[in-house]
Amino acid sequence: MTPEPEGRRHQTPEPEGRRHQTPAGRLAELGIELPALVPPLAAYVPAVRTGNLVYTAGQLPMKDGALAQTGKVGAEVSPEEGKALARVCALNALAAVHSLTGIDAITRVVKVVGFVASAPGFYGQPGVVNGASELFGEVFGDAGAHARSALGVSALPLDAPVEVEIIVEVA
């Protein structure tokens, strides 16, 4: 038996019907609507393309122009709420990419960086950032497997509990 390639050991096989589905089609199948692009809060742009890579700015859990929740994970925000907020951040990151290339141009999620505003003694940052990682797996299948960093920080802009930035490969 041939060993699996490094970095692919914990992947689940894609269901038959998903192998040739577009990201937009998969979002629709999941009942997820891509949000509107979140306007920048300062002097930056939401995403930049260089060659076949798109880098997003850090995305906060904004819904309808406001933070979905504020506070630190492990205090005012539970880890489960933080995980759901990381998913919102990930959707906002996809909207930033979509604004440049369209969602269906994404061929691979390369890297995810998640920042978690953490109460003292909270060490569950990886579980919180799983909210973003799991969304990418649901939408992109094997192409959603990525390198990742999950960092605990003392504060984020606007008292956001979570911030996520991504690097994706596009066609």
Automatic annotation (TrEMBL):
Q: Where is this region: Disordered?
A: 1-23
Q: List, as start-end ranges, the regions of compositional bias called Basic and acidic residues.
A: 1-19
Q: Which Gene3D superfamilies match?
A: RutC-like
Quote any Pfam family the record assigns: Ribonuc_L-PSP
The family database entries (InterPro entries) matched by this protein are listed as: Endoribo_LPSP/chorism_mut-like, RutC-like_sf, YjgF/YER057c/UK114
Q: Which residues cross the membrane?
A: none
Record's protein name: LysR family transcriptional regulator
- State the organism of origin: Mycolicibacterium pulveris (Mycobacterium pulveris)
